[in-house]
Known about the structure:
The chain is an alpha/beta fold and 254 residues long. It has a single domain, classed as Rossmann fold (3-Layer(aba) Sandwich). It has eight helices and seven strands. Strand 4, helix 4 (109-137) and strand 5 (140-145) form a beta-alpha-beta unit. Helix 3 runs parallel beside helix 4 and helix 4 packs parallel to helix 5. The longest helix is centred in the middle third of the chain and has 29 residues, at 109-137. It is globular. It starts with 9 loop residues before the first strand and ends in a 6-residue tail after the last strand.
Amino acid sequence: MSLFSLSGKVAIVTGSSRGIGRAIAERMAEHGAHVVISSRKIEACRDVAEALDARFGEGTALAVPANISIKEDLQNLVDQTSARWGRIDILVCNAATNPHYGPMATLTDEQFRKILENNVIANHWLIQMVLPEMVERKDGVVIIVSSVGGLRGSAVIGAYNISKAADFQLARNLAVEVGPHNVRVNCIAPGLIKTEFARALWEDPDRMNKVNTVVPLRRIGQPDEIAGTAVFLASAAGSFVTGQAIVVDGGATI
Length: 254
């Protein structure tokens, strides 16, 4: 068996109708997993699920819409996955939000609450829902897609960075709690990736000039370049890795 095989595993990937989440779901399906495609709109989820079924075989993917800010939606996501496949082996908390672009001085209370609730508390809710089964089975993987923003300051996405730093600590705490039950919890910290979510950053000429002249790889990343790290963490290849924040940023943070 391949060190990176996910054959027979069941993975939920939030925010997987596009961007990094979709890339992760596609690569996990390619490595043998059943995947649950989830985002707010059912049509977008179905499009991805149907594409994966066509590519990897009927029954590979399940589409379940969920708004991460609604706890009942997340419980429904877990319940539908369990009803379909009877277990959840891998949880990827990828969905996030950032309604504010600018200095912290212009951040409203409502925006700050939304960022923290969607990027940290919603992850906590969903992880709480899947951990009991993983702990009982003594096998499971949780991956939180954080950001290199959690490692540095920013004049324009400060609140988002605060939430991503909190995700690092969420993973560390949970890794300590559930490690004795053979459940692993890690973060991936992408750098600047060409997604719709990060459009405001990669369309900034000054930022792109800096990327192209200072970042060691001299470019921004593509969504699929994050997916390999997720497969590594979810598979036997990452079986001794927990509580970590793995940076995937083309060398920007060095």
